[in-house]
Write a structure and sequence with these properties.
Chain A: This is NnrS family protein. The complex is a heterodimer of chains A (383) and B (83). Chain A is an all-alpha fold and 383 residues long. Chain A has helices spanning 9-21, 23-48, 56-60, 63-84, 91-104, 109-133, 137-157, 162-184, 194-211, 216-236, 239-242, 247-272, 281-310, 321-339, 343-367. Chain B has a single domain, classed as GMP Synthetase, Chain A, domain 3 (2-Layer Sandwich), CATH 3.30.300. Chain B has 2 helices and 3 strands. Chain B has helices at residues 31-45, 69-75, and strands spanning 7-13, 16-21, 52-56. The longest helix of chain B has 15 residues, at 31-45. The chains are: A mainly alpha (383), B alpha+beta (83).
Chain lengths: 383, 83
């Protein structure tokens, strides 16, 4: 909370009222639900890996939905709402947060799924507004990403098992990230074929999700899409140039590029080692995409998004490479353990992932020299 | 922001300062922070000015053409050819 410059009661009341009405008062609870979803989702993951912990069996099924909808759905919706700047857009992250609470309260799955579907519908609305205001391939891609989230949630609400809908949830995240990279690629000299290649990847991704990534057909199409998308990123993304820079820019670029490698690896896994081929092939592909690609992008973006959304002034420091290394090490271990059908290695990779996430949060706190909360409407705290 | 061509207007007269900024994308969640930071910088730079008007505008739509020569240099783009 902001500390006061004057010590008077009236001034104190003014600051508190302004804070409560400020954007922070709306966003903090939304982020809190995302944090709850992250913690519960990771805990559920430990349960799935066979750890003997309380409530493991009850939560195990919720690992995917908690992380994909509760964490990422809420975060993406919140970012979109901040971009749109209108009150109604915040219904998306709010509903997503409610969905998480409903899910954790033990309500029947269709109830929670229905709430997440409502959240996705609002996100679709917001994405449509943005696309109408700025018609472009990248805004259209964001819209299709939101539609993919909606499709997955609706199917899940209507009783489809998670393995049949997860392709849509993956599409939501992959398209949301790819759209941002496409938008940024405008800052570089345009190369021929960018839009065509991007559209091809997008189309194959949707086809694969539609057919289901646990089918031979769907996993092949999805795998091809991931390889084509990685090809687009290799050729057109701006991260490559930033590898030559220093400090934060270089750190972010390394996060991106390492993520792109896992995207390609997941594509190869889906094609050559499709879900069903072995007990672990589904696990390998999913975690290469979600831990190797998506979480690496999260690590790379945290330094920019946290200040933008909640004015948390986090700073880059070289120590951040340690959790990044742990993260990618964990994915490598998980993939290797899956290929070798080595259960203990897989369980250890889960622990390593949890450690990577926790140490990243800790490293951010430590590296921010004087962690300063600025109330968003301009009242600065004294240090 | 200047180098990307995002400053559409920056004028000063007796009544005060007027600045108009845009963003490269409507989907960008950084806009709010950029506006707040811009306001803070302007207030710090011009403490004696009674009125500072800062607006986020969307017309004309930003295009990469608007990147300044210095911006092109920093991004490693070729300089714009003279008309």
């Amino acid at each position: 909370m902001a500390r006061l410059h004057e010590g008077e009661g009236m001034a104190a009341r003014r600051v508190v009222v302004r804070f409560l009405h400020s954007r922070g008062a709306v966003r903090a609870p939304l982020l809190a639900t995302a944090a709850i979803a992250l913690l519960a989702g990771v805990y559920a993951g430990f349960g799935r890996l066979g750890w003997d912990i309380p409530h493991a069996s009850a939560l195990a099924e919720l690992h995917g939905p908690l992380l994909l909808c509760g964490l990422f759905g809420t975060l993406v919706s919140l970012e979109r709402a901040v971009a749109i700047g209108r009150g109604w857009a915040y219904a998306a992250p709010a509903l997503s947060g409610v969905g998480t609470l409903v899910l954790l309260a033990g309500a029947p799955v269709p109830a929670a799924a229905g709430v997440y579907a409502l959240a996705a519908a609002v996100l679709v609305g917001g994405s449509l507004v943005i696309t109408m205001l700025q018609p472009a391939l990248f805004t259209g891609t964001l819209l299709f990403g939101a539609l993919a989230w909606l499709a997955g949630n609706l199917l899940w609400a209507m009783g489809s098992p998670i393995v049949d809908v997860v392709g849509w949830w993956l599409t939501f995240l992959i398209l949301t990230i790819a759209a941002e990279r496409l938008e940024l690629s405008r800052l570089r000299a345009p190369k021929r074929g960018s839009e065509a290649l991007f559209l091809f990847a997008l189309g194959m991704l949707l086809a694969g999700a539609q057919n289901g990534i646990t089918t031979r057909n769907g996993s092949t199409l999805f795998g091809i899409a991931l390889l084509v998308m990685m090809g687009w990123l290799l050729r057109h993304d701006i991260a490559w140039a930033n590898l030559r820079r220093t400090g934060q820019a270089r750190f972010m670029a390394i996060c991106m590029v390492a993520g792109y490698a896992w995207l390609g690896a997941a594509g190869l896994a889906l094609m050559g080692f499709p879900p069903g081929a072995s007990p672990f092939s589904y696990d390998i592909a999913l975690h290469a995409i979600l831990t190797g690609f998506v979480f690496s992008m999260v690590f790379g973006h945290a330094l920019i998004i946290l200040p933008a959304i909640v004015r948390l002034r986090v700073r880059y420091a070289a120590i951040l490479y340690a959790p990044l290394f742990l993260l990618h090490g964990a994915v490598a271990l998980r993939v290797a353990a899956g290929l070798a059908e080595w259960g203990a290695g897989r369980a250890a990779s889960g622990a390593l992932t949890g450690l990577a996430l926790a140490s990243f949060a800790l490293a951010l706190v430590l590296s921010s020299r004087r962690l300063r909360f600025a109330t968003i409407d301009g009242v600065r705290s004294s240090r | 922001m200047v180098d990307l061509g995002l400053v559409y207007r920056a004028t000063r007269d007796e009544s005060g300062i007027d600045v108009e900024l845009t963003l490269t994308a409507r989907s960008c969640p950084l806009g709010e922070m950029l506006m707040d930071d811009a306001r803070e910088r302007l207030v710090a730079r011009f403490p004696d000015v009674s009125r500072i008007g800062l607006d986020l505008v969307w017309h004309p739509q930003w295009k990469p053409d608007l990147i300044t020569d210095r911006g092109r240099n920093l991004l490693g783009l070729k300089p714009k050819e003279a008309a």
